[in-house]
Design brief:
The longest helix is centred in the C-terminal third of the chain and has 24 residues, at 140-163. The protein has one domain (6-195): Rossmann fold, CATH 3.40.50.300. It has a six-stranded mixed β-sheet with strand order 2-3-1-4-5-6, sandwiched between helices. Helix 2 crosses helix 3 and helix 3 (104-117) crosses helix 4 (140-163). It has helices at 17-25, 68-82, 104-117, 140-163, 191-195; strands spanning 6-11, 43-49, 52-58, 90-96, 125-130, 173-176. The chain is an alpha/beta fold. The chain has five helices and six strands, in the order βαββαβαβαβα.
Amino acid sequence: MSQIPTYLLLGKTGVGKSSFVNAVFGIQLAKTDRFSACTKLVEYYAQNTPYGEICLIDTPGLGEGGSIESTDLKYFDLVRTQVDFTRLTAVIYLHRFDDPRFRRDESEGIKLLTKRIGPQVWTRTWLVLTFAASVAEEERSVQGTAKVDAIGKAIREGLREVSGAELPFMFQQVLWTDNIVIGWSKSGRPTAEFLAK
């Protein structure tokens, strides 16, 4: 019997990791709040979808308490001790597509994550850009490329700091999705279809 596709969700507080869980499964499983972070622990959600069973592992967000050094280190230790990285299909790094900038604190969080968990965290990585319906259709391609470049650069810098050498890195998959608006893309496919493969 084969293992179900299992994805670890990482990203800053407020990027929509928990609402992504709910959007993928089409039901309210993970607690969400527009004004404050809800996820304080590593939470496993395994559900069947029309495309097959999927497991998503929700985690607290980077920069949750304002102090990267204190709060994030506790979260990284939670992830490191509660997730078997050898059993993951991929890590999904989520970032808000409608946030016009990739900020330094997020870059520093990625580097700290790489140091604390190790380079294996980025072995198989997808990038999911959330809230895509909020980005004008004519801007998505250029803005999407800029996001891929900026986040990929931060990951490569983190890998270099840990290993002392330039390590190759490329996202295996880049998806644009919206956690709230259904049917926002006429040519799109359900995210669960990609995840169940």
